[in-house]
Design goal:
9-stranded mixed β-sheet; alpha/beta; TIM Barrel; globular; single chain
Length: about 220
């Protein structure tokens, strides 16, 4: 399965991708499984799962008090603003998995702090060791060192906020039965296919965020 564990829809403030456009593009580029991880909501993930002909994992990129943490296989949204420990505890209470997104990207203000990593680490399942939107390769390498040091699963993700980013980075992994535990088994045998996205993509998402603040949040389709 070609699996991308970090993508966004218009339900994120910095994306304008409709669920229908997301699904269409995933089919076109051959993605078999995605985790929709909008900022502080699972609404987009639920909508995508309803219409997608492929596997969709309900996820959320949660803004904890110490930076972003991703929950996978969620049933309910996790509130933002909690401590990292509170955030990962609520994810685990749902039977979900904890992923740390772009932990060392020095150009994003939203990354989890070193103290946040330390607090969440006993509950972490996956670390993004390649995020297509990371500008510096050194930041991805540092994430890989974190995962290796603690024996954690690894993922490569597009972190797509636009359809043009989909299919650039993904994990080729065996099929799984839909449960978090079998997903972890499959991911452990995965291979990351990694291609960086131009740093100019951050300009696109910044402009999207500004436009949505001024003119409204969601383009319907």
């Amino acid at each position: 399965m070609r699996t991308d564990l970090h993508v966004h829809t218009r339900y994120s403030p910095d994306s304008d991708t409709s669920p229908a456009d997301l699904v269409d593009r995933c089919v076109k580029v051959g993605l078999d499984c995605i985790a929709v991880t909008d900022h502080n909501t699972i609404e987009g993930a639920i909508e995508v799962r309803r219409i997608a002909p492929f596997t969709v994992i309900i996820g959320e990129e949660v803004a904890s008090a110490s930076g972003e943490i991703i929950g996978l296989f969620l049933n309910e949204a996790i509130p933002k603003g909690l401590t990292p420990l509170e955030t990962v505890t609520l994810i685990r209470q749902q039977g979900g998995l904890v992923s740390i997104p772009h932990p060392y990207d020095r150009f994003r203000r939203s990354v989890i702090t070193p103290q946040g990593i330390e607090e969440a680490l006993p509950y972490v399942d996956v670390v993004e060791v390649f995020n297509s939107r990371n500008t510096l390769d050194a930041d991805n390498r540092k994430a890989a060192e974190l995962a290796e040091a603690h024996g954690l699963l690894t993922s490569g993700v597009s972190d797509a906020h636009t359809t043009m980013e989909l299919g650039r980075t993904y994990v080729e992994m065996p099929e799984f039965d839909g449960t978090p535990e079998d997903f972890k088994r499959a991911l452990a045998h995965g291979t990351i296919v990694a291609r960086k996205t131009t740093p100019l993509i951050h300009v696109v998402t910044t402009l999207t965020k500004i436009r949505k603040r001024i003119f409204g949040r969601r383009r319907r389709r």
